[in-house]
Structures are given as structure tokens and as C-alpha cells.
Design goal:
Layout lengths: L1 H18 L10 H9 L5 E5 L7 H18 L2 E5 L3 H7 L3 E5 L2 E6 L1 H6 L3 H8 L3 H12 L1
Parallel strand pairs: 1-2
Antiparallel strand pairs: 3-4
Length: 140
């Protein structure tokens, strides 16, 4: 009996290895987690760094999905992120945290006008400068 079980397990392992062409989907992928959350028909969804670890194409697709859900379902999204592109694409209002407190709240235009040194560095530093140039026309 034991040899039969071992042969069956070995055959199953070979079959699974042969059939598998790529990595299995990550169980905690942002899209899957969002789908589980939306199944409960919430009025607000909390997202914690949803684009972290995604390639730029997948992150852009996820941002577009969130924006569509906001528009079509009237969904409120509370998102914690360091992704400047997501902030620009998804967020209507941003709260910047520095010095253990909220130092600036408002639309992206308010972030660009904020005088707090950390906020200025974040949004107008090396990486943020790209964002600033894209939406600078909205401020002026």
C-alpha cells in the first residue's frame, strides 16, 4: 500500500510540475484583496500600499481600476501610499504626515503649495519633481 501511495504522490508531483508554466498568483494580490472587500458592498475601502511591489503597468492598471470604482460605485477609498503616481491618479484629497502629525491636507495643488519642509522635499524633490511638472499647470 505505501509504495502505491508514494508512486501516486511522485506522479502527482511530476504532473503538477509539468502543467505549471509560471508562478502561482500571489494570494494577497491587490486585485484579489479588493474583490474580497467589494463583495461586502462597503461604503469605504481601506488600502495599505496597494501598488507596492507591482510593476509600473500593473500599478497603473490598479490605479485605473480604483478610479473607475470611485466614479461608478461612489466608493470612498482611504489609501496609505508612498506611490506618487497613485497619489496623482487616484486621490482627490491627500493628507501628509510628518513630525508625528498631519502637516497638510487638501488636493494635490495644496501639497505643492505647502510650506512644510518635508512636504516640499517629498513633492518637489528628485522623484516628486516629475509629478510637480505634470500638475504644476493646475496650480498656476
Amino acid at each position: 500500500m505505501v509504495p502505491l501511495i508514494l508512486r501516486s504522490a511522485a506522479a502527482l508531483k511530476r504532473r503538477v510540475s509539468k502543467d505549471r508554466v509560471g508562478p502561482a498568483p500571489h494570494p494577497a494580490s491587490p486585485r484579489a484583496a479588493l474583490a474580497r472587500a467589494l463583495a461586502l458592498d462597503p461604503e469605504i475601502v481601506f488600502l495599505d500600499e496597494p501598488t507596492s511591489g507591482l510593476d509600473p503597468i500593473a500599478a497603473g492598471d490598479f490605479d485605473a481600476l480604483i478610479k473607475t470604482l470611485q466614479r461608478t460605485l461612489g466608493l470612498t477609498v482611504f489609501m496609505v501610499t508612498h506611490d506618487l503616481e497613485s497619489l496623482y491618479t487616484v486621490c482627490d484629497r491627500v493628507a501628509a504626515l510628518a513630525d508625528c502629525r498631519i502637516v497638510c491636507v487638501g488636493p494635490m495643488e495644496a501639497m505643492l503649495k505647502c510650506t512644510h519642509p518635508w512636504v516640499q522635499t517629498y513633492f518637489q524633490g528628485k522623484r516628486g519633481g516629475m509629478l510637480t511638472s505634470r500638475i504644476g499647470q493646475l496650480v498656476n
